[in-house]
Amino acid sequence: MASCSEQLSDWAERLEFRDLPADVVEATKLRVLDVIGLALAGSTTPFGESLRRATVAMNPSGPSRLLGTGESVGITAAAFANGAMSQALEYDDTHNESIVHMSSPSVAAALALSESRPITGKQMITAIALGSEISCRVGSVAPGQFHRRGFHPTGLFATFGTTYLAGRLLGLDSTQTANAAGIAGSFASGILECWVDGTQSKFLHPGWAAQSGIVAAFMAAAGTTGPKTVFEGRFGLLASHLQDEAVPRDFARINNRLGEIWDSRKASFKPYPAAHVIHPYIDAILKLRARHAIDPNDVREIICPVASYIVPIVCQPLAEKCRPRSDSHGRVSFQYTLAEALFTGRLGKHAYQKATLENPAVLALAEKIVCQIDPTFPPPGQFKGVVKIFLNNGECHEAVEEHNRGSAENPMTREEIVAKFEENGADLLSSARLHRLADAVFSLESAPDASHLVRLSIRE
């Protein structure tokens, strides 16, 4: 019987643009637009500047370019830098069940490759849809099991998505692609120790996944081999990273009804630059603030029922979550994020500034937020939020969000995603340039050369 990776490789070789459902094509284009905007915004941060300097220092001039600033570097270097910059604000989309950020690595890899060889718009859309789908599927074999062990699913699973994407764009056959996936298993990585001290290494993981997938595909094209049982094998990805044999592993999720069921449809765009599991709570607390004109000074306590799996991700340890040391620390803090949202009445591109992170009133509010595990809450796949605000005068106000905004059940509109893109790109590109870029993305399937997206993503 063919292994999981061989079955994926056969599908990847057969898939054509005409096989993509219309909604998957539309969603893929929106994700391309979203990621480009995020990379532009990320390039203007201190993290983005450090990434740019390091990338240029390590790489001679090559065929691919950094988004925003336009430095010419090698293919893998551009994929690495652009993928990493797109997560600098913790603002990129997420597959709800696996909690994989699948679009930023896929888009970064495809854009870098598009400047190295002829790639049409249809080929790019097909490869990104393929890569993102595979990232979601591989990440859903054992959902919810990796964050709690300190692994970042994006670093682990998006590496495979970009491998199949790169294999597709490089013209690999199914045997070569299966070898590439086996090679990628040795590159898949990403630990979350940075969540302890608020440092930035997690932001590198989408870039590492983009780079690794391209490297694996080039190596396989040149004849390097890799294990065909990279997923389910004795020393494969799941056995090595989940060494507790009692943990269920549903390998059928990888290949079940490929091309009929699109798991990527269950990925959510982000309206807020914070960990995705916090989003329904942000919506709830902002609605309560507006609806009842709540003054943060009048708050006695805020009770938030939560699913158990999110606790080690964003709720604990309390000392870290209530007093984050940096913006990256704050973006994965449940208590601090809700406190800033309630205190300021918003949570946008410019959230998590140093002055707010150190504001005694915001920090005091964070300590009033209590997370309580509710066993009736849904497992990974549905992000539900409930906020109960108790005021000093005895009043209690409650809001429930069954699904996070940006999800399939509670979608952001195309106009909202375009507005987010324009805000994120405004520091580097003119309004006219942003409009041209958006138009180019939305007509991508008719483009004979997809690399024009990169040209339009570089400041004049």
Major β-sheet profile? 4 strands, mixed
- Report the mean per-residue pLDDT as an integer: 97
The Cα radius of gyration reads: 21 Å
Number of helices: 22
Poorly predicted residue ranges: none
Binned strand content: 5-15%
Broad shape: globular
Distinctive features:
460 residues, alpha+beta, 4-stranded mixed sheet, two-stranded antiparallel sheet, 22 helices, 8 strands
List the SSEs and their pairings:
Layout: H1 4-14, H2 22-43, H3 46-58, E1 64-65, E2 72-73, H4 75-85, E3 94-95, H5 103-114, H6 121-139, H7 153-170, H8 174-184, H9 194-197, H10 205-221, H11 237-241, H12 252-255, E4 267-268, H13 279-292, E5 299-306, H14 311-315, H15 318-322, H16 327-330, H17 334-344, H18 354-357, H19 360-366, E6 369-373, E7 385-391, E8 396-401, H20 414-425, H21 431-442, H22 452-456
Parallel strand pairs: 5-6
Antiparallel strand pairs: 1-2, 3-4, 5-7, 7-8
Offer a quick outline of the entry.
The protein is of the alpha+beta class and 460 residues long.
Written overview of the protein:
With 460 residues, the protein is an alpha+beta fold. It is built from 22 helices and 8 strands. It has helices spanning 4-14, 22-43, 46-58, 75-85, 103-114, 121-139, 153-170, 174-184, 194-197, 205-221, 237-241, 252-255, 279-292, 311-315, 318-322, 327-330, 334-344, 354-357, 360-366, 414-425, 431-442, 452-456; strands at residues 64-65, 72-73, 94-95, 267-268, 299-306, 369-373, 385-391, 396-401. A 4-stranded mixed β-sheet has the order 6-5-7-8. The radius of gyration is 21 Å and the shape is globular.
